[in-house]
Amino acid sequence: MSDALAAGPDGRLRCGWGVAAPEYVDYHDREWGRPITDDDGLFERVCLEAFQSGLSWLTILRKREAFRAAFAGFEIEAVATFGDAEVQRLLADAGIVRNRAKIDAAIANARAAAGLHDGGESLAALIWSFRPDSRDRVPRSYDDVPSTTPESKALARELKRRGFRFVGPTTAYALMQACGLVNDHLAGCAVRDEVEEDRRRAPASLR
After folding, report:
1. Nearest to 37 by CA among 106, 107, 122
2. For a surface tag, which of 13, 24, 98, 120 has the fewest beta carbons within 10 Å of its beta carbon?
3. Is there a contact between 40 and 77 (Cβ–Cβ < 8 Å)?
4. Cα 162 vs. chain centroid, distance in angstroms?
């Protein structure tokens, strides 16, 4: 059993980070590693991973509802229309991370995702095409969890080629972890098998 596991408030063992704050428990159990297969859902995660750069994920989780309100529920087509007035509104919004480069990137990423739609493609199909064959990999400690992989590097390159910003290999791998392309819950984590079952049920077109 990994020493990186820790008991949550219900006594069940979880990945250690997943019990570090109350917000983490819910996110760890209900979201992290479970497949996100819709374009707007993936767009939200791309944006939030970019806003998290240099900050803690807990900061982003605590501001998440404010982000959703500020960015039109992360509807790709809506955010793609944002202009200077919206940028100024976002820079004045104390509920979110007021970083001009990251705000500009979120809008640019919406336009890039909308461009995929215009070409008959989807963001989900693009991202999931980089899903690695990691079915036999079960990390037992944090030392077994990489920060980048060949697939995350390839995904980052392709997203950048398509016009996306703030999507380096480390951010791309964090996205893959969060959205179910990989299952990095540690061996012995109470929700690892649930997450793996959810991944097996992902649409065949994305697997």
Report:
1. 122
2. 120
3. no
4. 18
**Candidate list 24, 27, 32, 128, residue with the active-site label:** 27
All domains of the chain, ordered by start, with CATH? Answer: 5-200 (1.10.340.30)
d(CA 28, CA 40): 21
Number of neighbouring beta carbons within 10 Å of residue 170: 16
| 57 is a catalytic site residue | yes
Whether 49 is catalytic is yes
Q: Are 8 and 19 in contact (CB under 8 A)?
A: yes
Contact predicate 24/18, CB 8 Å: yes
Selected catalytic residue, list 24, 32, 57, 128: 57
Q: What's the pTM? A: 0.93
Q: For residues 181 and 111, what is the distance between their CA atoms, to the nearest angstrom?
A: 24
Q: Which residues touch 69 (CB under 8 Å, ≥6 apart)?
A: 95
Chain length of the chain:
207
pLDDT digits (tens, 9 = 90+) for 39-94: 999 999 999 999 999 899 999 999 999 999 999 999 999 999 999 999 999 999 99
**Tens digits of per-residue pLDDT, 150-197?**
999 999 999 999 999 999 999 999 999 999 999 999 999 999 999 999
Residue 196 annotated among the catalytic residues of the structure: no
Please, which residues have CB within 8 angstroms of residue 63's CB and are 6 or more apart in sequence?
95, 96, 97
